[in-house]
Amino acid sequence: MIKILAVGDVFGAPGCNFVKKHLRKIINAEGADFVIVNGENACGGNGLDRAEADLIFSSGADVITGGNHSFRRYALMDFIEDEPRILRPLNFPVGSPGEGFCIVPVKNGLRAMVISVCGQVFMDPADSPFTAVNRLLESQKGKYDIAICDFHGEATSEKLAFAHEFDGRIQIIYGTHTHVQTADERLTPRGGGYISDIGMVGSEDSVIGISYETAVPRFTRNVRMKGIPAAENVSLRGAVFTLDEKTLYCTDVKRINYNEEDLK
Prior knowledge:
Blueprint: E1 2-7, E2 9-10, H1 12-30, E3 34-38, H2 50-58, E4 63-65, H3 76-79, E5 101-107, E6 110-118, H4 129-139, E7 146-152, H5 156-165, E8 172-176, E9 186-187, E10 193-195, E11 200-203, H6 212-220, E12 234-243, E13 250-259
């Protein structure tokens, strides 16, 4: 049995502090063998820099995936080439710094290929995630045993279409970006595990991690304010995927939600 823990978007200092304080407890509680964390909003709620990346790794993450905000902090460009376990979306344009995938050991000699992609629907321009991933799977054939994909996108329809297209070729597909955990976890017909969005690490008393005071005026008065991460009632949401070590089929998908009270 192999357990993969996927953690939703870490949002700003409140999310980073929660990860630093509690991620290893959660890894132990869930019996996770391998941990993937989305870090594209870790730095002040926008982007990723070295300090936040180091914090996430030191807290127990094996790979950090990205998203449309990955390069909002220019500092990432200075070190992403030196750390293959920090991913930006695979389908960013040719020439973007870093890589959209990595192959790393998981358990008992098995190798996982972790893929980060962005959606195209209601998102910033990016190449087709379908085409990019098809090319990747073909080029890396025989170099990995398990494939895992963080699909960073707005539209559940696009995520579901992607899951259907790659069922049987990618064992674990989960969504990030909306910061809202969905309740559609499932086992797919060809042995995979799927959920449309695993949520975030951030305040439950917020608008997707941003304080009400700085988020609400955008909708009530069309006034865009600098979003300040909310710091109260922080929780960690994600999912645990269980794989059969012999067949490499996904046998269980479980949503998780931990807050401070759960971890005392």
